[in-house]
Amino acid sequence: MIIAARNLSKFFDVKGVKNAKIRAVEDVNIEIKEGEIVGLVGESGSGKSTLGRLLIRLIEPTSGEILYNIPDKELDEFDIALKNKDESAIKKILDKYSITKLHGNELKKFRRNVGIVFQDPYSSLNPRLKIEDIIAEPIIETGYLKGNEAKERVYELLDEVQLPREFSFRYPHELSGGQRQRVALARGIATNPKLVILDEPTSALDVSIQAEILELLKDLREKYNISMLLITHNISVVSYMADRVFVMYAGKIMEKGTKNDIIKNPEHPYTQALISAVPQIKRTKMRIVLKGDPPNLINPPKGCRFHPRCPVALPTCGWTADEVKPTLDYLIDTKYFTEFTNANIEIKNDLELIANNVDINKLKEIINIEKENYKPLLSIKDIVQENGYVALKLYQYETPELIELENGREVECLLFSQKSKNS
Amino acid sequence: MSKNSNVKPDRFRELKLSLQVFFSNKSAVAGLIIFLFYLFDALILQFFPQILPFKHPYQLTPNYANPIPEPPSLKHPFGTTYPGIDLLNAIIKSIRLDFWLSLEIVIPGAIIGLVIGIIATYFGGWIDEVLMRITDIVFSIPYLVLAIAIGYVLGRTLQSMMIALILVWWPLYARYARSVTLETKELTFIEAARAAGTSNLKIMFKHILPNSLPPVFVQISLDLGTIMLTISALAFIGFLPAANLPELGYLTSLGYGYIQTAPWAMIIPGLFIVLFALAVNLMGDGFRDVIDPRRRSEL
Amino acid sequence: MESNQLKSSIAPIVKVEDFHLHYYTRRGVYKALNGVNLEIRKGEVLGIAGESGCGKSTLGRAIMGLIPRNAAVVDGRILINGKDYLKPLKEYYKNNKKFKPSKNADVLKKVNNEMSKIRGQEISMVFQEPMTTLNPLLQVGYQIAEVLLYHNPGLLASRRLSRSRAKKEDTKAIVKILKENGPNEKFEQYLKEKDIVGLEDQILAIWRRKDLHDLKKEQMIEKLCCEPISSFVKNYLERIEKENKLPNFSKIPIIGRIVKKELIKEGYKKASEFLGLLGIPNSDKIVYMYPHELSGGQRQRIVIATAMINSPQLVILDEPTSALDVTIQAQILELIKELKESINSSYMFISHDLSVLAEVSDRIAIMYAGQVVEVGNKDSIFDQPKHPYTQMLMEAIPTIEAHELKAIKGEVPDMRNPPKGCMFRDRCPYAMPICAEKRPSLIKIGEDHYVSCFLYEGDRL
What is the pLDDT of residue B145? Predict the structure, then answer.
């Protein structure tokens, strides 16, 4: 594997609020093989851009490990060592392959092996520098080449991205958007890296230019066997380019697998909704429309982060009392308000609610009827009469782990975990 | 595959556009012309004083024989002021001093402010807090008062006045640099530079500084006027002890006692101060048009 | 007689005839629109597709009359319900040797005055970025109420007055009528007799809710009465109700403030009802929130509500979903599809994403370099694209079904110096000598399918 991340997390501080953190990426495992194009898809707030930057240490991780150029066998050993908490084995592999502790010249050497191309061709090139200086920057700053050799390399790179050599004397404002993105690409591969991160490389370009850039990327991969992490929200681009796909939501990986598996046969409910949401010229299947919005990352939903919007959520997917209360309040105020005129629901703790002035049997009946229409109600395990009030106890939620299915497919969803299947 | 096959790529296109924008603003051009007069005066007197018929090019030459201010006449086109100083003569000499003084205050002030502002904003965190609080404190003191205070501590010389004013002026540039750095810091070419392995120092001075210069340049041109007003004000109230110092404010103060009987003695030097401030303001407006991307494209 | 009736029933809301628009900038004169021919029919969704620089946004804005001062209307016209609002601009251009933005701006002022009467009422627009469309300092309910206040103050006044005129027995009787027969003529007649027609909206909004218990609905309807108003406010409201016009508030400062406040309050209520209709939950709380407290999808829904609350005849949507996540985009597209059913407006949907247009449009027009190169109903365009640009565009766009991508070589021409003949000639694999000499115009080559290309001269219908 060119790069592998284990339990990678990044939390950002919230300005002004003391202990609040934006949990942009949490406990993520990802690996990229040599010469493969991995598509990282997700919507805004999914953490995909942050993850891309973490992998090349453009941002420092809060916790977790990133390993570079590690043979598959040793990666497996590492995983086993993590599971068994074998400290010495872990340390041995980290010393050899980890990049999180690198600094100084070693860090510069590492930077030769990775590159990045950003989304906006207008702001990613310094308007005051000539094209040759822009492309040469990584070459010179990482110590890859010097002087005339560096200059030669710049010309080679311009040839590679099919721009005329005389462009090296021009300034960015003299080039079109598509041409600028080619320059950004030239800069990204300047030091002959093994891995290039592409953050929405074509989203700011016209469709007709997009195709050229994607072709160019495919050619470069053919020629130099460069691995690429293609970060995008555009599933069609991923469908065209990627070998494998990782799907992210709210800072976590929901599903990963080969491109065909993910797009033709998505398993995770989020992936299914995502694929069906893509506008199609000939729509074959009914579109799944998700309700609501992506969650707040400072206080993300418990258990599986997708459960509030999931059309097939289970009782143990992460429901908490504060999610159940609004549903109960709503039912009491509207449909059933004749039967519960003075009723009032309170939250006792994360997993328990208190209902005052209700008839326990009526409540049980209503919850039974409405369970299928309102997912939060599924999480109510017991309804017991206590002194003067009715207590509603919820199921303890589980946090799903990445489960391996066949063909390299992994899904993080309770629908697929063995325990859930048996309960 | 050139950008527009019909239009030849012209690397001076942007420069030509800048000139076009500037010269379409009539008042800015007027300001520039007036400014050029002052510049011309300062350059000639500084480097080629022999061209002008001045025996003492860097000092006022009073005529005690005829101390009372005389009105403008053929012999004295601007009249004279107390004690018998020909105003035209005096003003030509004063412009030189005031002009260089302004430059020598604004430029160092700008440099110090820029460096502090960029470093503070780029690093953020406690460095930012400390430097910015210092900036705020200095900034909040009225500049005239601070200048006087420093001057009295260091002694009332030209040098101490310059130091005082530089110390008073840099916070403005720190603030400017801060706002531009904040904006530029977020642009992705900075991230690209970090990904390329460029050191922080290099990023600040190769990437951020050049991009923050245009608005700062506008501010510098405006400040030249304000500084000259300040120097004149300080000189007027007698901050500088030197007599016969060719300085517009000092010159104005000389006429103060004769304001009713010989108003030209005060008005004319004062006019030259205000004229410079006005010219530089109009010119600065023109520069602002040049750097504002919207104003550049509109007709 | 019959054919005349047919003709009038399909008269288009908007007809763009050979429209030319040029932008005057320091860098040159950009010929943004070069003879656009288009019509938007009643009740249809017309998709406008094209890449950046093709002029689709400029066209949308021109129809709304949102023309910047340095843009000259050089030729042609845009008829909205038969009226050419931009005529003064064209006349200024044609009658003056030199184009001066400042003089153009004077003419624009008059044009804007005329058009502001229909903006928000007959025609409205939704832009790409909901955050900059909404005023961050005002509650969203206020922003919707403003649109109502400006165009339909009579409606708001009527609502308020009806609640003061209605007595308890009236609302009780209405509930009885609704329970027996639903909202039929007896219901409407009763309202007319008692002069409380303003209650109709409010009653129906409650009655049609699916999330309330019937008893609760009855309770709420019965409460719509007996709200007294002070007599001087009442007088003004009655006048507003009759004339559907706002008085000059600056002449009556104190009372004016009170009257305006009452009307805005009504506006909030109507906004909340309308948002509820659009499927936004908790709409009664949302109207009191500020734009930054809402998510991107919610904001865009507010913008759509603002555009549609006066049931305009035409809604122009300029890339309304491009700034949104794909799952939120799906919600908005479904919303637009539903609105299409319930409010019979026409829609002009501008997007660079052909798949999005495929989901919502009835007809699609493809634009290139300031012209419409092909237009037809959705199926004909996708099944049988005729214009070379349309064909190449479809091959260049990645779809979820991965297919071979073919880039379109070359670039859009420099619009300061567009080519003499066909705009697409330099990039067209089928270019013929005539393409360098003359510009093709739209010809009919199928049932409701037009293309602008010399390849099809022989197939002209």
Answer: 84
pLDDT digits (tens, 9 = 90+) for B92-144: 888 888 899 899 999 999 999 999 999 998 888 888 889 889 988 888 888 77
Taking CB atoms and an 8 Å cutoff, what residues of chain B touch A125?
A: 189, 192
Omega within 30 of 0 (cis) for the link into C429: no
CB A32 within 8 A of CB A227: yes
| Residue pointed to by tokens 């092996």 | A113
Question: Residue C130, SS3?
Answer: helix
Residue A276 with chain C: CB contacts under 8 Å: 330
Q: Which residue of B has its CA nearest to C101?
A: B299
B257 CB neighbour count, 10 Å cutoff: 14
Structural domain of residue B210, as residue ranges? 20-45+77-297
Chains that touch C (3 or more CB pairs under 8 A): A, B
Nearest-Cα distance to chain A for C343, in Å, is 22
CB pairs under 8 A between A and B: 72
Which domains, and CATH codes, for chain A?
3-273 (3.40.50.300), 321-394 (3.90.1070)
Of C52, C326, C358, the CB nearest to A277: C326
**Contact partners, residue C115, CB within 8 Å, separation at least 6:** C64, C65, C85
Contacts of A176 in chain C (CB under 8 A): 411
CATH code given to domain C1-122+316-421: 3.40.50.300
- The better pLDDT of the pair C40, C225 is held by C40
Q: What domain count does chain B have?
A: 1
Strands (DSSP E) found in A44-129 = 63-68, 114-117
Minimum-distance CB partner of B197 among A111, A123, A170: A111
Q: Burial of C41 by CB count in 10 Å (0-12 exposed, 13-18 middle, 19+ buried)?
A: middle
What are the φ/ψ torsions at residue C99 (nearest 5 degrees)?
A: -90, 120
**Confidence check: pLDDT of B2 > 70:** no
The 8-class DSSP code of residue B258 comes to G
Q: What is the mean pLDDT of residues C452-461?
A: 86
The ipTM, to two decimals, is 0.83
C133 or A243: which leads in pLDDT? A243
Average pLDDT, chain C: 88
**Domain membership flag for residue B14:** no
Interchain CB contact of C411 with B (< 8 Å): yes
Residue C71 CA, chain-centre distance (Å), reads: 22
Tell me where in chain C the CATH 3.40.50.300 domain(s) lie: 1-122+316-421
pLDDT at C344 over 90: no
Cα separation, C95 vs C1, whole angstroms = 42
Q: What is the pLDDT of residues A99-153, one digit of tens each?
A: 888 888 889 899 999 999 999 988 899 988 999 999 999 999 998 998 899 999 9
What pLDDT sits at residue C8?
Answer: 38
User: How crowded is the C-beta side of A155, counted as CA atoms within 13 Å?
Assistant: 6
Provide mean pLDDT across the span C177-189.
Answer: 84
Q: Which residues of C touch A239 (CB under 8 A)?
A: 398-402
Residue of C nearest to B19 (CA): C26
Q: Are the C-beta atoms of A391 and A405 separated by less than 8 Å?
A: no
pTM here?
0.85
Please state, in angstroms and rounded to a whole number, the distance separating the CA atoms of residues C33 and C368.
10
Residue A172 is encoded by which pair of tokens?
Answer: 């960015």
Residues of A in contact with B187 (CB under 8 A): 123-124
pLDDT digits (tens, 9 = 90+) for B198-252: 988 899 888 988 888 888 888 898 899 988 888 888 888 877 776 778 888 888 8
Q: Mean of the pLDDT values across residues C416-427?
A: 91
Question: Of the candidates B189, B199, B206, which has its C-beta nearest A124's C-beta?
Answer: B189
> Which of A211, A263, A335 is opposite residue C400, by nearest beta carbon?
A263
Cβ of C26 within 8 Å of Cβ of B299? The answer is yes
Q: Tell me if chain A has a CB within 8 Å of the CB of B129.
A: no
